[in-house]
Structure formats: structure tokens, C-alpha cells
Amino acid sequence: MSPASFTKHYAEPERAAGAVRHYRWLTAHAKPLRQPALHTAGPRFLTFERIEGRPVRPEDLPRVAELLGHAHGAAWASGLHSASLDTPYHFEDGTLFDDYLGPRKVALRRRHEQGYLPNKTALHAMLGLLQATAEGPCAFYKDSNPRNFIITAQDIVAVDTDDLSLAPLGYDLAKLVATLHLTYGPLTDQAVTTALLAYNAAARRYDARLGTTDRGQLDSFLGLHAVLTAPYVGRNGYHYSLPLRFTHRGAS
Q: By CB distance 3.0 to 4.6 Å, which of 100, 123, 155, 172 could disulfide with 85?
């Protein structure tokens, strides 16, 4: 392996092939996202250009939020304007691109089975919250946690394309906010609002309908992420926890 390369290994060939498919889709449809060059795609490994830098810190949030807004806007203009949040999308080779609702319904039920949701009432509240957020134009979700971006002296580079699915505008920004909280502790309200404004301003450059995520929607996404990320507290550098809320917009 060249010193300028980084190799990621996979237990299953399907996971490696999926990561390549996601990488190529993002390259074609989310052009504002800079990704490391993909040198080699083997059956159980991928070799990328090595990028020197550091993970995202709270002070980077406005810049990364702006980048996500541009990436989501570009992807919507390039193809996702024809997608629906409750229907799987198709890659160019015909492979399914997961919808927003289906996989997250499964994940929320699993969190209930694992004990992160205390009872069926809490599960139904979270399923209701999920359904309530399935509205508006489609973006993509690529698991925007602090480790999946590298801050360099000149740029922000997006890495790790293992996960990709449809999601509402703002959902992946909320994942970044949630995981920064898990890593560094609670962010200030002003920091979150500033990031959301930067995200909306960037997305709106592609279509006026894209820059409308409000703080209530972002908070709903954060409520979902609190449950979905609960098993990872204490792992992967997540030293803090997010408060769990079992109500959704419109509920008492």
C-alpha cells in the first residue's frame, strides 16, 4: 500500500460494492462534496487517497452545515427532485437506494426491543414523529458525524460512504449536530441556529423550496437521532448522551 493511500476492509463483498456505488452517486450528483480519490475497489476492500486532517469540531459546524446545504441542493437539482421519501430510489445500475421511512421504522422497533424505548407508547410516539418528518423535498443521508468529514488546511473532505439513503432536508445536518453533542457535549442554541441558517442559505441557492427547514423540524430530527444513536453512547468517542423525548409535533 502506498503511504499516500488508506485501505478500508469489509467483512462482506456486498458492503464494499455498496460503498463504491454510494461514492460514485455522490461524485455524480453531490458535486460540492469533495471526496478522496478512490484508487482500488476490491471484493472486500477499498483503497482511497489518504487525506491528512482532523475530524469536525463544534467551531466547524457553520462551515460544514453550509457544505451540506450545497450538497443537498445540488443532489436535489441533479435527480432527487423526482424522489419520494416513502419510496426507494434507484441508482443508475438499478440497485435500490433506501427510502427514508422503511429502514428507520425497523431501527426504531429494534431500539424498543433493545430497551432504549421504555414501552410501546414511547415506540408509537417515535414512529409518529418519524412519519411527521417525512415531508418536503428529498435530500440524502450519509451519516454526517464528526469522523465522516476531514478538516484540512484548505478544504473539507467527506469520507465513508457505507451508508446512503433518502432523507428530508435538514435530517443529515441534525445528525451532525447530534453527534457533535455526543462527542463534545451540548452545543449552544445560538450555534445550532447559526448552522441551520447557513444550511438553509446554501440549499436555497438551488431552489427556493429547499431553504425552509425550521428549528422545530430540526429539533424533531434531533429527537429521532437521540433514539437511533442511543446504543453508541460510550463508544466511538461518544462521551455524552442526548435527551430522549417521546412526543412529536402535534402531540400533547
A: 100
Nearest to 36 by CA among 25, 50, 19: 50
Of 223, 229, 227, 246, whose CA–CA distance to 122 is shortest?
246
What predicted TM-score, i.e. pTM, was given to this entire model? 0.94
Instruction: Kindly state the cell numbers that stand for 161.
Output: 460512504
Q: Exposed e or buried b for every residue in 40-65, given b needs 16+ CB within 10 A? A: eeeeeebbbebbeeebbebebbbebb
Query: Rounded to an integer, what distance in angstroms lies between the CA atom of residue 72 and that of residue 80?
Result: 9
Q: Quickly list H helices, 84-149.
A: 101-114, 120-133
CA distances from 159 to 2, 55, 136, 138 (A): 19, 10, 27, 21
Number of residues in the chain: 252
| Per-residue model confidence as pLDDT tens digits over 59-92 | 999 999 999 999 999 999 999 999 999 999 988 8
